[in-house]
């Protein structure tokens, strides 16, 4: 009966109290193992340094294979943890994103390429980009909302509001990374399929003055006119494009060259609205998150394997 009493008390505790109790037991268990813990920390730091050097060299020498493997891991690793931890809400959004994106990629890789496919592809990934950006910002604001204690005025528990903020921030960043990477694959393939430029940077066929090099469709709005849906943009190389196409090419697909002549594009001249500069900074944040999600679990797994082989607990 005495042995059952602590278990009954543990069941009556709240989640936070139970977590504190388990944390205290963990400290008691590892008390006196400071030397072993220091060795484990050194192994972690050394593994992180070596892994970073290897990844940087791989990316510089074989960028295409690095990006493909990273994208595959970005797609698979969260799925593993989702199934393991029963995160069905994330699994449902991941499934919808995967199905629609798979169809978009299928359309983008068909030969001959339909004239409507490029705009459809860019619309989808630009939608994902904007949604992920909005969800990420809302999640960040929810976290700040909780940290400054504003949740008290609305009688919202700090744990609940913080959980919502962290989840939304993760959703925004994760799908932002996935959307950008898949958009890059599609933009490379479509541009070479359309035939206005090749990997060597030289156009493979002539471009008419009233044709957009991204989607291959006719341009109806003049440069000095304001379009109802979208305007017409002219790059520094004097080639003109649909606004939606060239913004998708440069911002979503991470392209900073002209789709026709491969000349470098000045994004600052394209972004008349200063608020749009935030999207570039957000894109840099997504590039950093790619390493965190795709490679960090593998690095931690390697560290655990080394510790286990050395008999460190």
Give a verbal description of the structure.
Residues 212-262 form the RING-type domain. It is found in: Membrane. Keywords: Membrane, Metal-binding, Transmembrane, Transmembrane helix, Zinc, Zinc-finger. With 313 residues, the protein is mainly alpha-helical. 67% of the residues lie in helices and 2% in strands. It has helices spanning 4-12, 15-29, 34-61, 63-85, 88-108, 117-147, 158-194, 243-252, 267-270, 277-294, 296-309, and strands at 232-234, 240-242. It has a two-stranded antiparallel ribbon with strand order 1-2. Helix 3 (34-61) crosses helix 11 (296-309). The model is unreliable at 1-5 (pLDDT under 50).
> What Rg, in angstroms, do the CA atoms define?
25 Å
User: How does the major sheet shape up?
Assistant: 2 strands, antiparallel
Helix content: 55-70%
Q: Walk across the major sheet and give the strand order.
A: 1-2
Shape: globular
Low-pLDDT residue intervals, each spanning 5 or more residues: 1-5
- Please, what is the oligomeric state? single chain
Q: Alpha-carbon distance between the termini?
A: 32 Å
* Total helical segments: 11
**Topology order in helix (H) and strand (E) letters:** HHHHHHHEEHHHH
Mean pLDDT: 77
Judged by helices, strands and strand pairing, the structural class is mainly alpha
How much beta, percentage-wise? under 5%
Count the E strands.
2
Transmembrane segments: 40-58, 65-81, 87-106, 127-154
Protein name: RING-type domain-containing protein
Domain RING-type: 212-262
Keywords: Membrane, Metal-binding, Transmembrane, Transmembrane helix, Zinc, Zinc-finger
């Amino acid at each position: 009966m005495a042995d059952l009493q602590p278990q009954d008390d543990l069941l009556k505790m709240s989640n936070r109290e139970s977590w504190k109790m388990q944390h205290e037991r963990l400290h008691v268990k590892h008390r006196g193992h400071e030397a072993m813990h220091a060795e484990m920390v050194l192994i972690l730091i050394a593994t992180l340094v070596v892994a970073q050097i290897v990844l940087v060299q791989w990316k510089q020498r074989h960028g295409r294979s690095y990006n493909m493997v990273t994208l595959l891991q970005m797609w698979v690793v969260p799925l593993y943890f989702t199934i393991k931890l029963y995160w069905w809400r994330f699994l449902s959004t991941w499934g919808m994103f995967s199905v629609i994106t798979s169809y978009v990629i299928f359309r983008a890789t068909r030969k001959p390429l339909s004239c409507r496919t490029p705009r459809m592809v860019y619309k989808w990934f630009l939608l994902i980009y904007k949604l992920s950006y909005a969800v990420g910002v809302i999640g960040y604001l929810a976290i700040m909302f909780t940290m400054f204690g504003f949740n008290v005025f609305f009688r919202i528990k700090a744990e609940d509001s913080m959980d919502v903020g962290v989840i939304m921030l993760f959703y925004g960043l994760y799908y932002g990374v996935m959307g950008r990477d898949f958009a890059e694959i599609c933009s490379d393939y479509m541009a070479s399929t359309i035939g206005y430029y090749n990997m060597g940077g030289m156009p493979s066929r002539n471009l008419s003055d009233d044709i957009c090099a991204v989607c291959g469709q006719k341009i109806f709005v003049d440069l000095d006119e304001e379009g109802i849906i979208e305007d017409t943009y002219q790059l520094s190389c004097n080639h003109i494009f649909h606004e939606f196409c060239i913004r998708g090419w440069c911002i979503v697909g991470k392209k900073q060259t002209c789709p026709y002549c491969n000349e470098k594009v000045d994004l600052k001249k394209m972004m008349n609205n200063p608020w749009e500069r935030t999207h570039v900074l957000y894109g840099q944040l997504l590039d950093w998150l790619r390493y965190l999600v795709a490679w960090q679990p593998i690095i931690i797994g390697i560290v655990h394997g080394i510790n286990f082989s050395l008999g460190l607990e």
